[in-house]
C-alpha cells in the first residue's frame, strides 16, 4: 500500500531517503547539528531560512535568496539548484527523479 502524505510531511519514504541522502548528499553535507562539511549541516533544514547555519560561508546568492526550506522549496532546489538560486555554490547538477527527491526530503524532515 502506498504511503499517503501527512500534512507538513513529504510524501516520500524516509528510509529510502536516508540511503539516497548518503549516496547523493552525504559527501558534502552532514545531518549532525553543527557539523558543516563542504556544504552546511542539514540538521533542522526543513522550515529554516536559507543561508542561516552558523559558521558556514554561504555564497552571497544563498544568503540573499530570501528562501525558506519548506518541502516545495527543497524539491525545486534539489531538482535544479542553479536555476532555483542562481549564483549558489552547490555543485550538484540536480536530482531529476521526483520520488528520490521526495524520499530525501522525507529523511531531512526526520533530522530535527
Shape: globular
Rg on CA atoms, Å: 13 Å
Biggest sheet architecture:
none
The proportion of strand residues reads: under 5%
Number of helices: 5
Determine the N-to-C terminus distance: 27 Å
What's a concise summary of this model?
Helices cover 36% and strands 0% of the residues. By secondary structure, it is an all-alpha fold.
Describe the model.
By secondary structure, this protein is an all-alpha fold. It is built from five helices and no strands. It has helices spanning 14-24, 60-63, 71-79, 81-84, 98-109. The longest helix has 12 residues, at 98-109.
What are the salient characteristics of this protein?
112 residues; mainly alpha; 5 helices
Helices and strands in order:
Blueprint: H1 14-24, H2 60-63, H3 71-79, H4 81-84, H5 98-109
Helix pairs in contact: 1-5, 3-5
Amino acid at each position: 500500500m502506498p504511503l499517503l502524505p501527512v500534512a507538513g510531511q513529504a510524501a516520500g519514504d524516509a528510509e529510502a531517503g536516508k540511503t539516497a541522502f548518503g549516496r547523493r548528499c552525504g559527501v558534502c553535507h552532514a545531518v549532525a547539528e553543527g557539523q558543516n562539511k563542504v556544504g552546511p549541516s542539514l540538521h533542522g533544514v526543513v522550515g529554516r531560512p536559507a543561508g542561516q547555519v552558523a559558521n558556514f560561508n554561504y555564497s552571497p546568492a544563498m544568503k540573499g535568496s530570501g528562501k525558506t526550506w519548506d518541502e516545495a522549496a527543497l524539491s525545486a532546489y534539489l531538482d535544479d539548484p542553479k536555476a532555483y538560486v542562481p549564483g549558489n555554490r552547490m555543485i550538484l547538477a540536480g536530482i531529476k527523479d521526483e520520488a528520490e527527491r521526495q524520499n530525501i526530503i522525507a529523511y531531512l524532515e526526520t533530522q530535527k
